[in-house]
Each structure stands twice: as structure tokens, then as C-alpha cells.
Amino acid sequence: MIQVSQEVESAGRFWLGGVGFALTGLLEIGRKPSCRPFSHPEVTSVEPKAGICRLNRQAERQRRRRKREESLAMNRWILAACFLALTAAPAAAVDVRLDSYRNPKNENFRIFNHMYLDGVRGGLMASNAWLKRHGGQLLFCMPDTLALTSEQTEEIMLKSADKRSAKGEMVIALLLLWGMQDTYPCEKPGTQ
Q1: CB count in 10 Å sphere of residue 134
Q2: What φ, ψ does residue 128 adopt, rounded to 5°?
Q3: Residue ranges of the domains in the chain?
Q4: Quick check: 118 and 150 in contact, CB under 8 A?
Q5: Which of 148, 175, 151, 154 lies closest to 163 in space, CA to CA?
Q6: Its domain of life (predicted)?
Q7: What pTM was computed for the model?
Q8: Are the C-beta atoms of residues 139 and 129 closer than 8 Å to each other?
């Protein structure tokens, strides 16, 4: 019987283990591994039988926190940009006056004036709806089933201007409000 020293025996086992590992690797060639444990820094463990990688929960929380912080930073940037854009706008563009509405400089101004008047109408309707919902006194009492067109809105505003003999510096938003109150008055509580 041949006697083998312990070092040689352990080296042989190591070598045989290496051969077995290499053979296993050769059998795996051509098959795509389902999980690479070192491909992602957040992978903490591998279950080779199931082929499932589990992510570290703490790393996932950190990733979510980073994403949330990036989102907040982007929202702050957008808010700052909007604030800057609004404060940089000229103050003269806030109101449209009757004179500039009746005599626009060109076609673009005429279109802008009509869009502005539609916006005022929408704002008055929204204010009225809010007052109605919260029990306040309505600005005007237009029937719920009626929908005003742009032409009708313009007609109401211009009639209001004529009724009041409005000068060219009068703001058309006020003229429209007064015209809506004239056209769709609310009943007084004591009169019926």
C-alpha cells in the first residue's frame, strides 16, 4: 500500500474539485445563466436551484429615496422656472381694455382678444360654480342647461359697454361681469 502525505491528499482533492467545477462549467456553456450574482452591486444572495436573485431591501429603499429626491429637485426647478416666467411678463398684458378690443392692431390681436374674453367668461363661470357649491351669493344666475358661445359672450360684453357708455380705458372683464348680471339677473329673496 502506498502512503500519501496529507498535503498531497488535500492537494489531490482540491485538484479533483477543480476538475469537477470545470466540467460543470463546460456543461453550462450555451445555457444563459438566469442570474449573475456579481453583475449588480445590490444583489446579495443567489438561490442556484431556483435561479432567483434577491435584492437587498435596504438598497432598494435607497434607490427609491434617490428617485424621490431627484423628482423633488426637478419639481423645484420647474416651479422656479414658472415663477421666473410669470414675473418676467410685462404688466401691461394683464388686462384688455375696451378700446384695444374694439380696434385691434392686427388679426393676431383680434384673436388674442377673443381668447381673453373666453377666458374671462370661463373664470366667471368657475367663480359662480364655486359660490354656488359653498353657499355664497351668486354673481349672476344663468340657467344650468345654457352654454354661451364666443359670439354671445362678445355681444353681452359690448351691450354692457353701450349701456354704461364705457370709455376706451374700461376693462372688458368688468364689462362682461356687469353684462352677465344684466342678462341673467338673480331673483331677490323678497320679490316673486
Answers
A1: 7
A2: -65, -40
A3: 34-89, 92-183
A4: yes
A5: 175
A6: Bacteria
A7: 0.52
A8: no
Element containing residue 55 per DSSP (H, E): strand 52-55
Distances (CA, A) of 116 to 20, 109, 154: 81, 10, 11
Q: HSE of 58 in the Cβ direction (CA atoms, 13 Å)? A: 2
Neighbours of 156 (CB within 10 A): 23
Q: 131 to each of 47, 66, 85, 146, 188, how far by Cα in Å? A: 63, 43, 31, 18, 17
H-only helix segments in the chain: 6-28, 57-88, 98-102, 107-133, 150-163, 172-183
Other CB atoms within a 10 A radius of the CB of residue 187 amount to 8
CA–CA separation, 170 and 178 (whole Å): 12
- Average pLDDT per block of 10 residues along the chain, 192 residues long: 51 47 46 47 50 60 84 76 65 76 93 94 93 92 90 95 92 95 84 50
Say if CB 138 and CB 126 are below 8 A apart.
no
Q: Domain 92-183: which topology?
A: 10k-s Protein, Hypothetical Protein A; Chain A (1.10.890)
Residue labelled with grid coordinates 477543480: 18
Q: Which residues contact 151 (CB under 8 A, 6 or more apart)?
A: none
Instruction: Give the gyration radius of the chain's Cα atoms.
Output: 39
Amino acid in position 178: W
